C-alpha cells in the first residue's frame, strides 16, 4: 500500500549555534547527524567560542515508520568535529543524542545540549538544537495531478502557422504589466502563470540570526 501524501513527514533538526567552545583560528567546526543509517552534515563554520551553524537537517519518513522507530528507540545522534581545512582531518569533539519519542509536530523552543565525552575538558561546550515533525510539503505537491487542458480551436494555430517558433519570444509590456508572446495581431488570449516552490535543499548558509536556514533532506529507507 502506497502511503498517502498526508502521511509523509519530515524530522527536522535545527543545528543553530554553539557556546563555550575554545577559539581555534586554524580549524573549522562541523556537526554530523545520523538517523536510521542516513547521515547529514552542516557546512563547516569558524571554530570560535560561539560558532554559528544555522542549518536545518531533515529526514523523510511516513507515520508507520515513525511509530516503529519510536518503539525501537532509534536515536538521532549529532557528532561534533573540529576540521582541519588543509588536511581535511577531523577530530571528534563530542556528541549529542536526541530522543525521537520526545519530538512533536508542534514546534518547541530550541534547547541547549551539552556535548557528551567533550574533548575540551576545560570547557562546557553546548550546542543549541531544535527538533520538530513537519508535514512533507514536497509529497503533498507531488501527489497533486493537474488536469490536462482541453485542445483549443484551430483558429489560434492558423494565426501562428506561418511563424518561426524561434521568433516567438516574450516581450514585456511595462505600462500594462504583462508579457506579450508573439505578434500583437495574434495575441488574443490572457493567461496567468503560477510558479510553486515546493521544496528547497542546500540553500546558501546565512550566518546572521533570523535569516534563511540551510535545508538538507534525505529519504529514510
TrEMBL record:
InterPro entries in UniProt: C2_dom (IPR000008), C2_domain_sf (IPR035892), CEP120-like (IPR039893), DUF3668 (IPR022136)
Annotated Gene Ontology cellular component terms: centrosome
Keywords: Coiled coil, Cytoplasm, Cytoskeleton, Repeat
Localization annotation: Cytoplasm, Cytoskeleton, Microtubule organizing center, Centrosome
Pfam family, one: C2
Location of the C2 domain: 1-113
One biological process term in Gene Ontology: positive regulation of centriole elongation
Family (UniProt): Belongs to the CEP120 family.
Protein name as it appears in the record: Centrosomal protein of 120 kDa
Amino acid at each position: 500500500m502506497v502511503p498517502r501524501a498526508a502521511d509523509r513527514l519530515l524530522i527536522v533538526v535545527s543545528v543553530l549555534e554553539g557556546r563555550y567552545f575554545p577559539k581555534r583560528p586554524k580549524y573549522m567546526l562541523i556537526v554530523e547527524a545520523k538517523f536510521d543509517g542516513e547521515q547529514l552534515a552542516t557546512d563547516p563554520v569558524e571554530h570560535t567560542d560561539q560558532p554559528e551553524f544555522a542549518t536545518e537537517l531533515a529526514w523523510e519518513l511516513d507515520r508507520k515508520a515513525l511509530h516503529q522507530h519510536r518503539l525501537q528507540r532509534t536515536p538521532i545522534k549529532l557528532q561534533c568535529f573540529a576540521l582541519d581545512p588543509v588536511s581535511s582531518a577531523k577530530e571528534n569533539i563530542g556528541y549529542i543524542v536526541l530522543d525521537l519519542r520526545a519530538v512533536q509536530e508542534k514546534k518547541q523552543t530550541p534547547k541547549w545540549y551539552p556535548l557528551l565525552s567533550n574533548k575540551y575538558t576545560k570547557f562546557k561546550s553546548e550546542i543549541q538544537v531544535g527538533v520538530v515533525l513537519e508535514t512533507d510539503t514536497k509529497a503533498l505537491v507531488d501527489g497533486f495531478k493537474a488536469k490536462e487542458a482541453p485542445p483549443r480551436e484551430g483558429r489560434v494555430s492558423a494565426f501562428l502557422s506561418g511563424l518561426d517558433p524561434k521568433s516567438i519570444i516574450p516581450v514585456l509590456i511595462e505600462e500594462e504589466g504583462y508579457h506579450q508572446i508573439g505578434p500583437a495581431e495574434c495575441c488574443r488570449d490572457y493567461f496567468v502563470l503560477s510558479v510553486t516552490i515546493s521544496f528547497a535543499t542546500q540553500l546558501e548558509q546565512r550566518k546572521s540570526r533570523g535569516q534563511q536556514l540551510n535545508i538538507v533532506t534525505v529519504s529514510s529507507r
